[in-house]
């Protein structure tokens, strides 16, 4: 006969599973908080001990959902598992997944046949699976929300850093390219020759121009010979890449 109860204590599940309902009163008098107490008191029923151990292990690892005082249990909660409860729907799912060859009478019907109807057991299993999926979806939503908030914070931080860089006068990649083109054009006009072949500068070469700059601004940061040579080379390269042909 199928039990119509919606939830059970672990020891009740073990008693029903082992078909020891006639001895339930005697079994329930044992202090279950003591390890191996069932095996010591009832050595004639070794399956009772194995069943309760199996159920408690499933609860402990989260394979069999359980509640304690109406609150979901987690592996971090350290309490006496004999005082928790497991739902009928979760028991059905647990048995079908872990013991498909066993159909305890208190959960599974053996004399009802509704071929064209969805059985109560099937409904409860599907309901339990749906609730588990909903919990997963809710967890994913929370993770998505946290990730979105983190990305928003990074975007805001990037904007703030860009504003600070602009305020400090540090050129961006675009303005750097523009500066290089401008310097390259100035070098070309200054050190190059006119269309008639006349030299347009008093400096015969780039080296002479660099020497004049370092002599006029000695020790000034950013105007060392090495820095000027490097910047002039970058400027000439950008100009050459920008010129047609």
- What best-fitting shape do the alpha-carbon axes yield? rod-shaped
Order of helices and strands: EHHHHEEEHHHHH
Largest sheet, if any?
2 strands, antiparallel
Number of domains: 3
Mean pLDDT: 81
Taking the alpha carbons of the first and last residues, their distance comes to 93 Å
Structural class: mainly alpha
Strands in their spatial order, largest beta sheet: 1-4
Question: Stretches where pLDDT falls below 50 for ≥5 residues?
Answer: none
Could you tell me the number of beta strands?
4
Count of helical stretches: 9
How much of the sequence lies in strands comes to: under 5%
User: How helix-rich are the residues, as a percent range?
Assistant: 55-70%
Rg is 41 Å
Task: Tell me the layout of helices and strands.
Elements: E1 7-8, H1 10-17, H2 24-27, H3 37-41, H4 46-60, E2 67-68, E3 71-72, E4 86-87, H5 88-98, H6 120-167, H7 173-191, H8 206-216, H9 225-242
Antiparallel strand pairs: 1-4, 2-3
Question: What would the keywords be for this entry?
Answer:
about 240 residues, mainly alpha, two-stranded antiparallel sheet, rod-shaped
């Amino acid at each position: 006969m199928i039990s119509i109860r919606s939830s059970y204590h672990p020891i009740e599940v073990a008693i029903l599973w082992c078909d020891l309902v006639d001895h339930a009163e005697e079994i329930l008098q044992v202090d279950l908080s003591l390890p191996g107490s069932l095996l010591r008191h009832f050595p004639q029923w070794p399956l009772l001990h194995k069943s309760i151990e199996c159920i408690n292990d499933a609860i402990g690892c989260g394979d069999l959902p359980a509640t304690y005082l109406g609150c979901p249990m987690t592996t971090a909660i350290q309490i006496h598992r004999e005082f928790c409860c497991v739902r009928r729907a979760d028991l059905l799912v647990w048995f079908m997944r872990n013991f498909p060859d066993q159909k305890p009478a208190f959960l599974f019907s053996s004399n009802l046949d509704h071929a064209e109807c969805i059985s109560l057991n099937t409904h409860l299993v599907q309901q339990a699976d749906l609730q588990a999926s909903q919990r997963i979806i809710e967890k994913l939503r929370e993770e998505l929300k946290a990730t979105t908030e983190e990305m928003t914070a990074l975007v805001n931080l990037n904007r703030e850093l860009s504003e600070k860089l602009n305020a400090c006068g540090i050129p961006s990649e675009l303005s750097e390219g523009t500066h290089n083109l401008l310097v390259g054009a100035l070098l070309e006009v200054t050190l190059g020759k006119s269309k008639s072949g006349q030299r347009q500068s008093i400096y015969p070469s780039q080296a002479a121009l660099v020497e004049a700059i370092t002599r006029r601004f000695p020790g000034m940061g950013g105007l060392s010979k090495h820095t000027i040579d490097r910047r002039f080379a970058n400027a000439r390269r950008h100009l050459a890449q920008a010129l047609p042909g």
